[in-house]
Amino acid sequence: MSIYLPIAELSVNIFLLLSIGGVVGFLSGMFGLGGGFLMTPILIFMGIPTNIAVATSANQIVASSISGTIGYWRQGLVDFKMGGVLLIGSFFGSILGVWIFSKLVVLGQIDTVISILYFSLLTSIGLIMLIESSQVIRDRVRRKTVKRKIHYHNWAHKLPFKIKFYKSKLYISAIPPIIIGFVIGILSATMGIGGTFILIPAMIYFLGMPTSKVIGTSLFQIIFVTALVTLLHATTTFAVDAVLAFFLIIASVIGAQLGVLAANKLRGEEIRALLAIIVLGVATKIALDLLVEPSEIFNISVIRALF
Amino acid sequence: MNLRILFFIKLIVLAFISSASALVIGSDEEEIYIDANFSGKNLLVFGAFYSDPSQSRDDKSDILIEVVGPSEDVVVRKKESFFGFWLNSKSVSFNDVPGFYYLSSTNEITNEFLNENNIGLLNKKDTQLIDWSALNIDWGNVKNQKEKDTFYDALIRTKESEDVYRKVNGEIDIIDGNLFRSYIEIPNTVPVGQYKVNLYLIIDNKISNEYSYNFMVTRVGIEEAIYSFSKNYPLIYGLISLLIAILIGWSGAEVFKRFRKV
Question: Where in B149-228 does DSSP place strands (E)?
């Protein structure tokens, strides 16, 4: 059974769509990631135009991050003040990101730029996950426990405009979180990702936030970044496909909840290593598409249809 | 089939008013609707060579059917290798290119004939010299003639592979020597808008008679409603998309809350 996507203007198999949403949702629930970094390239591989894949992915992440935030909020693990400060940066970042995006569409370079960005991103994530999970497996074999520093004092504490973040027990400048938010905003708008995997390490290492509050706070701010990105894309690039988003959301919300359940019952490292290999596989496919001489070196796009 | 009855009435009427060669035609559709399940359609075009049914078609007369779809502007981009990466580089914009083009004839028609009578788009593909002045093109930084030809060929090639440009012959059925009938395949990828059907009766390599009519291709259904809503009210469309995401995300968390506590 296939369904016609009104904005992408093509028919896709409904079960394929639900499986993709479900699997990506499951992985994101399991590892606490947004899943956009897998969703967008998979949609592109399916033949969905790049701009629609990016914009629709942002819309889908709104749903999955709300679902996640509620869970963390109930446990009191969301620092709303920190989320708000991050959002100031994200607001301007996503406006700039959508502007860059629409310029690249006009120049005809959006596919290439997205491919290069995704290749770099997925390669880094894949390698980091692979190294980290193999270390954990090795440490477990040697029965070693890793000690972590609770608090970091770095340059973030020396800048002006200091703010007290009671929930995170921090007294730091507002500038680093605003800059981090800004970068996440740009990435979210151009790549259709929430940016959890960049946001979480940045919040831990640059801001020195306690690890327990990091995931909830990042999910909280991602709701608003991706919501803004969705609105900006809907109004400027007209690339949000509501039908595509609807099926992806349904499947990914269910998948994410099952992923959370599975994460509590399964040992993560082996699956994490497997995910790392999947991520690297996707990165390789993107690289090949860029490097191998295409069979058709011309491509055409309709820029204006007369009615 | 009211149109068919109408066609025979036309045939009889015309038989009385002219004894010379005439082209009488009809079609079974005036509007084609594309919905989510549309998988293409065979458009029927039929007619008669001569108004006098007793007069049979001689070998010298041919029928040419041309279907021209709504215009669109198209950018053709060429990928080039930069340090091993295949990137879009040069681009050419072709303006007012038909989104659909179909040319069908009883016998093969020569390019000279098509050029002489200013018919065709695909015919230019086979000729060495393309009359660029007839087309509205922004060449960008593509300067030489050979390179221009490659862009033009790429446009035609892509449109042909999408089944929206076709040139065929021998697909027109001739019945009783005087009547003709042809099914024109309209694939589901065609653009919406007004289509023009031009029919030519060719005798001794000259256009003896011609007839044109229009039909519409329209999108219908819920998908069309969503599409036009997203273009006409983008902000509300965006907000609704968000609302759906929020509601599903929220209810997902609520529904599974019980399971998680176990």
Answer: 165-169, 173-175, 179-186, 193-203, 206-219
